[in-house]
Design brief:
- The complex is a heterodimer of chains A (105) and B (171).
- With 105 residues, chain A is mainly α.
- Chain A has a single domain (7-104), classed as Helix Hairpins, CATH 1.10.287.3510.
- Chain A has helices spanning 7-27, 31-56, 62-92.
- Chain A starts with 6 loop residues before the first helix and ends in a 13-residue tail after the last helix.
- Chain B is mainly α.
- Chain B folds into three domains: 1-82, NADH-ubiquinone/plastoquinone oxidoreductase chain 6, subunit NuoJ (Four Helix Bundle (Hemerythrin (Met), subunit A)), CATH 1.20.120.1200; 89-113; 126-171, no CATH class.
- Chain B contains six helices and no strands.
- The chains are: A mainly alpha (105), B mainly alpha (171).
- At the A-B interface, helix 1, helix 2 and helix 3 of A face helix 1, helix 2, helix 3, helix 4 and helix 5 of B.
Chain lengths: 105, 171
């Protein structure tokens, strides 16, 4: 269904999404919003895997499996990260990155 | 312009706009909902290229799981009316220049590279095919990463419970 869309356009969209995620990760000061930036970056990479698979190697579906495994890892990562945030909030009443240097001690 | 191209550019626009809103919105709960729309746009893209199973997984795990998890953590850790403080303008400027530079560099590299688009017939990504590949231990089988992922998910589950549970003395 994508014969009329050149691969470079899809890749430009995904790289835009990746760098928007990076921008969010670098400017935000709240841990949850930083996690949102990371999720955007992971998602952009995921689309790249699938698009390369579909356009360049349509006879194999390897990129599809890479995307599946990345989704599983992203879910595990989000679960652990949010457990850490909740524990942190319980201890220091804040999830601002500037105040979480207590995690060092 | 062909219909599929129009659909694709619409989805792409929705994805970019909602990604931008997700990283710039000062209301944190709205940022999470914008992330949901960006992820749903991705699922629509997967539907467009006939990966129905992957699109369903994207919707269930990302849109249904991770976004709900993020919204829960927002509700547990911030007040609903709280607005995030604006990031310092200098920091915004430097970060915007850096990320824009990275984006331009990436697009330049993409434009220099000649992708050889294959016109082989595409393999149907049916559920039975995916299942055979995921549990196949022959050539091109993914049984080892499948098992490693299951261990990882178990470890993440135990880790999340241990980290987030209250100490016995607290209650």
């Amino acid at each position: 269904m994508m014969e009329h869309v050149p691969i470079s356009h899809v890749l430009i969209v995904t790289s835009a999404m990746f760098f928007i995620g990076a921008y969010g990760f670098l400017t935000r000061r709240n841990l949850v919003t930083m996690l949102i930036g990371v999720e955007l970056m992971l998602n952009a990479v995921n689309i790249n895997f699938v698009i390369f698979d579909r356009y360049l190697f349509p006879n194999q579906i390897e990129g599809h499996f890479f995307a599946l495994f990345i989704i599983a890892i992203a879910a595990a990562e989000a679960a652990v990260a949010i457990a850490i945030f909740i524990n942190l909030y319980r201890n220091i009443r804040s999830i601002n990155v500037e105040e979480v240097d207590k995690m060092k001690y | 312009m062909a219909t599929s191209a129009i659909i694709f550019y619409t989805i792409a626009g929705v994805m970019i706009i909602f990604s931008l809103l997700a990283v710039t919105s000062r209301r944190i709960l709205r940022a999470a909902v914008y992330l949901l729309f960006a992820l749903a746009g991705t699922a629509a893209l997967y539907f467009m290229i006939d990966y129905q199973f992957l699109a369903a997984v994207q919707l269930i795990v990302y849109a249904g799981g991770i976004v709900v998890l993020i919204i829960f953590s927002i509700l547990l850790t911030t007040h609903i009316n709280e607005k995030l403080e604006k990031p310092a303008p200098g920091k915004v400027f430097i970060t915007a220049v850096l990320t824009l530079g990275g984006f331009v560099l990436t697009v330049y590299t993409l434009s220099q590279h000649n992708f050889i688009v294959s016109d082989l017939p595409q393999t149907e990504a049916t559920v039975s095919h995916i299942g055979e590949k995921l549990l196949g231990y022959g050539e091109g089988g993914y049984v080892l990463p499948f098992e490693v992922i299951s261990i990882l998910l178990l470890a993440a589950m135990i880790g999340a419970i241990v980290i987030a549970k209250r100490k016995a003395s607290d209650s």
